Amino acid sequence: MQLATIFGFDLSRQRGEIVGWLRALMASEDGVVQSGAAFDEVAGDIRFVYCVVLSLTLLSYQLSAAESQRLARWICRCQTAEGGFGQRPGCEAHAGHTFCAVATLKLLNLTDGFDLDSCVKWLKRRVLSNGCNGRPGKPADSCYVFWVMGSLRMLGQIPTHDHWLDTRGLTDFIESCFNEDVGGLAPNPDCPADPFHTHFGLAGLSMALGGGRVRLGTVELELREFCIEKALVKNPT
After folding, report:
1. How far is the C-alpha of 176 from the C-alpha of 215, rounded, in Å?
2. For residue 113, what pLDDT is reported?
3. Each residue of 93-120: pLDDT tens digit?
4. What is the Cα gyration radius of the chain?
5. Distance CA 29, CA 66 (A)
6. Residue 56 to residue 67: CA distance in whole angstroms
7. Each residue of 47-103: pLDDT tens digit?
8. Half-sphere exposure of 189 (CA within 13 A, CB side)
9. Over the stretch 11-51, which tens digit does the pLDDT of each residue have?
10. How far is CA 24 from CA 28, 35, 82, 110, 133, in A?
11. Which residues are 159's β-sheet partners?
């Protein structure tokens, strides 16, 4: 849906069918969203909730207040005692799942049902001296710069005025992940580059810096400010 929106595809003829299928995935009374795959036996996944709500938003479809509240209650149950969000209730908190939770609650315009302070503190603890990690005890990975910085930006913590964020250190980490031979970013300096980490590493850095110029090896890039409010979390109302 995001690609269709970016490239201007006309989905008006398919809109009703797509909306109907997406709504069928969220038919559960307890707020669980299914994947739609016949082989999927796992009940509920925060990633599917985010994808369904974002897709409906891109299709300019407004959920009812009851539907939105039901989804928001399930999402808030995914928050752990540490502050982050897990894949489903009872799971370990993870930066990627936290991003999905925060973005979905922003889309639903229902951000008052979770512990904001503990979530912000948990996310800030994911910022290391050499990048960002996805959960405690894990090494830094360039893609988590996106999940962490994106979540913090949606929660109003970026741009920052209290100097808690070392943008120079974050930039140095992304630069260390750059592979001059192929031109992409790797998860960390010891891994091969790939498109996934190139995209999320640059997108996360642009959110942390608010745009501007950055040098990767011998290449100088102009990072546009990543308008996450418009691209991901703009409320349809």
Report:
1. 11
2. 95
3. 999 999 999 999 999 999 999 999 999 9
4. 18
5. 10
6. 13
7. 999 999 999 999 999 999 999 999 999 999 999 999 999 999 999 999 999 999 999
8. 9
9. 888 999 999 999 988 877 777 787 665 445 566 899 999 99
10. 9, 10, 33, 22, 35
11. none
Give per-residue pLDDT as tens, 144-202. 999 999 999 999 998 776 678 888 999 999 999 999 888 899 999 999 999 999 999 99
Residue with tokens 């979905």: 104
For the CA atoms of 98, 52, 66, 80, what is the dihedral angle to 10 degrees?
-20
Amino acid at 150: G
pTM over 0.85: yes
Alpha carbon distance 36, 188 (integer Å): 34
- DSSP symbols for the chain: -HHHHHTT---TTTHHHHHHHHHHHT--TT-------TT------HHHHHHHHHHHHHTTPPPPHHHHHHHHHHHHHTB-TTS-B-SSTTSPP-HHHHHHHHHHHHHHT--SSS-HHHHHHHHHTTEETTEE-SSTTPPP-THHHHHHHHHHHHTT-SS-SS--S-HHHHHHHHHHTB-TTT--B-SSTTS---HHHHHHHHHHHHHHHTSEEEEETTEEEEEPP--HHHHT-----
Between CA 34 and CA 27 the distance in angstroms is 9
